[in-house]
Specification:
The structure holds two protein chains of two kinds. Chain A is mainly β. Chain A contains no helices and ten strands. Chain B has two domains: 146 residues, 3-Layer(aba) Sandwich (Peroxisomal Thiolase, Chain A, domain 1), CATH 3.40.47; 217 residues, Peroxisomal Thiolase, Chain A, domain 1 (3-Layer(aba) Sandwich), CATH 3.40.47. The two termini of chain B are 20 Å apart. Classes of the chains: A mainly beta, B alpha/beta.
């Protein structure tokens, strides 16, 4: 049994899987990328701490992508999920990718899935949000 | 003194948008430049004090210098600019700034793109995953995230922009977005320079190939070839030119470029709203006009979902009222605020770096009373808007000469 690695470093797999943001210690702005400083011009702080995000939220915007760059399986649902005030970019997964099954404001929760195993036996784990039925 | 007299469009030209298989970007750029010089009443490259040029996807270095080598190498400074879909507007604004600063009294801006047959503008192709998961980049990603964590396709990003507006204010249905595209395709039938001049029914648009719900193919901007160029002149210099040049000159009442100010979520889904609203606010203030004074608007309908939000961002309607504004018929060419009477990016086409000058060409044409079959009667003030993701927003307000 190999170990696992998250698709991105802001997905935390230990314990209950969840997302973590880089939160500015000056103003509370939240980011997911590696930071040089805070982009809030009223802050410009350079200190950040990792904070866990709620694992549920609601769909604030979505699209159902039918045409994507070569190699990307379609269709899929791309969305912005509002996790109690922190917006997250993610796919909506475990749902029929059609407008009858996805709606603005729908409640969703974080879910993970295996992306594949590399030569060393390590499994990469992806994430998305699935409907709370 | 130059400041008091303002900066004017003296000449402007756009090529036919569409497929130009026998012309390269230099041919198209040169055609636009020579057209703009001729339209300016026969001024020459020798009269230009600055050249700002944009070409986003051509891959070559120094499009400005390449065009100079065809139309006139006078040794003037060239600024090759890039600002995504706002590249053309950025080139124009660069020339305007040079004139405004008093560095020269005439300048030239050109934007050119060859995109016919380019297909979907998306992120990179997804390659096979590496044989060892290794975190890379600013997100520590072990695999490609496009399609796994949201989408990088333009139709998908702008679909979400329109859907988010619908989430906030309601009423933004698939059919409504299709009807916006219907309008722009209908408008294009009067524009001989449009890449496409075909009217579609709402049903045809809704049943077209789905690209990124709710944007079908005919709700997406048309990739095509094209170029546009403009000659700008100081008001002081303009007074020394012929009566005909003064009559046809169009005043640049406002030239504004903004980027997106930091807000929660703006790095998650590009926020195309705040920087457009900021640009519009600054432009209305600089020009001393309000949205109600506009006789026509060319706005950045890169997708039908984008046009809706920009009604609101440009304050053509009250906040949250974009759906009602469209439903009232206001944005059709016979409405109270005609929007995209050229056919817009969805039908006229979107050769990226040319778009920000071509929109201004359209407005100038109406202000000069030279728009032929699609002339908006008695047009005196118009607004041209573009937005490039990343983001940059250009807003220009143009006024008919008071001669």
């Amino acid at each position: 049994m190999g170990s696992s690695v998250p698709i991105v470093d802001y997905l935390v797999l230990d314990g209950d899987p969840h997302l973590e943001a880089n939160e500015c210690t000056g103003c509370g702005a939240r980011y997911f990328d590696r930071r040089n400083a805070c982009a809030n011009p009223d802050c410009s702080g350079a200190g950040f701490r990792r904070v866990p995000l709620p694992t549920s939220g609601e769909v604030r915007a979505f699209t159902i992508v039918s045409h994507a760059a070569p190699g990307i399986p379609v269709p899929f649902v791309a969305a912005v999920v509002d996790c109690d005030g922190t917006s997250v970019r993610a796919n909506v997964i475990n749902v029929e990718p059609d407008p009858a099954h996805v709606s603005l404001g729908m409640k969703v929760r974080l879910a993970t899935y295996p992306l594949g195993t590399d030569r060393a036996g390590t499994e990469a784990v992806g994430f998305g949000f699935e409907p709370i039925s | 003194m130059a400041k008091r007299d303002g900066v004017w469009i003296l000449g402007i030209h756009m090529t036919k948008f569409g497929k130009h298989p026998d012309k390269d970007i230099v041919d198209l750029g040169a055609e636009a430049v020579l057209g703009a010089l001729a339209d300016a009443g026969g001024v020459r490259m020798r009269d230009m004090g600055v050249l700002a040029a944009g070409n986003l996807l051509g891959g070559g270095l120094g499009i400005g210098q390449q065009i100079q080598k065809q139309v006139g190498q006078t040794g003037i400074p060239v600024y090759n600019v890039a600002n995504a879909c706002a590249t053309g507007a950025t080139a124009l604004r660069t020339a305007v700034m040079a004139v405004k600063a008093g560095e020269c009294d005439m300048g030239l801006a050109v934007g050119v793109e060859k995109l016919a047959g380019a297909g979907l503008l998306a992120g990179k192709d997804r390659k096979a995953d590496a044989d060892t998961w290794t975190p890379q980049g600013r997100f520590g990603a072990v695999a490609s995230v496009d399609g796994r964590i949201g989408t990088e396709t333009m139709p998908g990003v702008f679909a979400q922009v329109g859907m988010e507006y619908g989430h906030r204010y309601g009423g933004a249905t698939f059919e409504l977005f299709a009807r916006i595209a219907e309008k722009n395709h209908a408008h294009s039938t009067l524009n001989p320079l449009a890449a496409y001049q075909k009217r579609f029914t709402v049903e045809e648009i809704m049943n077209d190939v789905m690209i990124a719900y709710p944007n079908t193919r005919s709700m997406c901007s048309a990739n095509c070839d094209g170029a546009a160029a403009a000659v700008v002149v100081s008001g002081e210099k303009l007074r020394t030119l012929s009566a005909d040049q003064q009559r046809r000159a169009v005043k640049i009442a406002a030239s504004v470029l903004t980027t997106d100010p930091w807000e929660e979520a703006c790095q998650i889904l590009p926020n195309v709203n705040t920087l457009t609203r900021n640009a519009a606010t600054q432009a209305y203030e600089a020009a001393g006009v309000g949205p109600e004074d506009l006789d026509l608007v060319e706005l950045h309908d890169c997708f039908a979902t984008a046009e809706l939000v920009h009604y609101d961002n440009l304050m053509l309607c009250k906040e949250g009222g974009a759906v009602d504004f469209f439903e009232s018929g206001a944005s059709w060419r016979d409405g109270s605020t005609p929007v995209n009477v050229s056919g817009g990016l969805e039908s006229k086409g979107h050769p990226i770096a040319a778009t920000g000058i071509a929109n201004i060409w359209e407005v100038c044409h109406h202000l000069r009373g030279e728009a032929g079959d699609r002339q908006i009667p008695d047009a005196k003030v118009g607004l041209a808007h573009v937005i490039g993701l990343g983001s940059a927003c250009g807003v220009h307000i143009l006024e008919k000469a008071a001669v």
